[in-house]
Amino acid sequence: MAQDSIQRFLFQDHAVRGQVLQLHQAWQAMLQDRHYPTNLQQLFGELTAFAVLLANGMKYEGRLTLQVQGKGPVNLLVVDIDDALQLRGVAKTQAPLTDLTGAQALLGDGQILVTLENRQTDHFYQSYVGRESDDLVQDLQGFLTQSEQLESRLFIAVSDTTIGALYLQKMPETDGHDADAWDRVSHLAATVKPEELLNLDSATLLTRLYHEEQVELFPARLPLYHCPGNREQVATMIKALGETEARAILAEQGEIVVHNDMCNRYERFNADDLDQLFKPA
Questions:
Q1: Number of structural domains in the chain
Q2: Quick check: 17 and 10 in contact, CB under 8 A?
Q3: Pair (130, 261) in one structural domain
Q4: Is residue 204 located within the same domain as residue 244?
Q5: Dist. CA 248–CA 251, nearest whole Å
Q6: Is 10 in a helix, a strand, or coil?
Q7: Which long-range contacts does 207-212 make (Cβ < 8 Å, 24+ apart)?
Q8: How far are the Cα atoms of 9, 97, 99, 101, 173 from residue 38, in angstroms, in the given order?
Q9: Which residue segment(s) compose the domain that 171 sits in?
């Protein structure tokens, strides 16, 4: 079985670095029981890949959240990931997507907010990904180039079972090693096919693209889908309603049901659960 992984690599002779990403199990878990159409999966997958690539560069304990809110048919996209590469996410729509394609048609004026939480300093940093094209990957690539002040190339492929991505970054000393290296490496990367990103492991992909180059591949990290339950939080919310109102809801509906959108999980409370919640101390 193919494994989820993200691996850094370095062109030893050219001072060009990059990452290769494949998500299988984590992506399938994010999509489970969501029934997202293909065009929504594409946007959601591209944002998910971008989040993992960014989080793999975090040098402190923290969390990264990407959020898109807008007035288009897709009115909410959220991907949340921590420094251990534990991720989760959700997409919401407010109108049928039918055969719409492209970021402009699907997201409308939605802006992409990047929030970084540094748990060691308890500080938050926010920035926006500029929406300048109909291709979300091009806009994400532009953000990488602008935020790092280093030229970047980003390639992402998405299916209903897998996400594959290739990310290249030109380091400040690249031209001093080989003035043509960046153009050559970028040109070869642009020949990558979606099926190669989705199906080839990191070593095979890089060998196929760069068989004449010396590429150092670093140990892989394992991204994981992680969306823990929040039953205790829901119980606290129900207690805050008060016993009278909680039992009135129970009498009307037969049970109290709260849906966690991010995890796509239902927390259910019946009469026995309420008896325990409101049991005298």
A1: 2
A2: yes
A3: no
A4: no
A5: 5
A6: strand
A7: 210/11, 210/185
A8: 31, 10, 9, 10, 41
A9: 5-225
225, 243, 263: which is the final residue of a domain?
225
- Same domain? 110 vs 210: yes
> Looking at residue 198, which CATH number applies to its domain?
3.55.30.10
Can you give the CATH number for the domain in which 270 is found?
A: 3.90.1280.10
Determine the Cα–Cα distance for residues 47 and 230; give it in Å rounded to an integer. Answer: 25
C-alpha torsion sign, points 267, 272, 274, 277: negative
The H or E element spanning position 267 is: strand 265-269
Q: Residue 165: what pLDDT?
A: 98
> For 172-212, how does the pLDDT look when each residue is reduced to its tens digit (9 = 90+)?
887 777 778 899 999 999 999 999 999 999 999 999 999 99
Tell me, yes or no, whether 165 and 236 share the same domain. Answer: no
Distances, alpha carbon 142 to alpha carbons 170, 202, 210, in Å? 13, 24, 24
Q: What is the b/e burial string over 234-266, where b = at least 16 CB atoms within 10 angstroms of the residue's CB?
A: bbeebeeeeeeebbebbeeeeebebebeebbee
Whole-number Å distance between alpha carbons of 169 and 75: 31
Distances (CA, A) of 85 to 5, 63, 81, 202, 268: 10, 9, 6, 18, 29
Q: Which two tokens stand for residue 218?
A: 């670093």
216 and 238 fall within a common domain:
no
Q: Is the domain of 153 the same as that of 244?
A: no
Within a 13 Å sphere around the CA of 75, how many CA atoms are in the beta-carbon half?
A: 6
Question: What single-letter amino acid sits at 63?
Answer: R
Q: Apex CA 188: angle with CA 176 and CA 190, to 5°?
A: 115
Residues 159, 99 share a domain:
yes
With bands split at pLDDT 50, 70 and 90, how would you rate the model's confidence at 120? confident
Same domain, 202 and 273: no
Give the percent of the chain with pLDDT over 70: 99
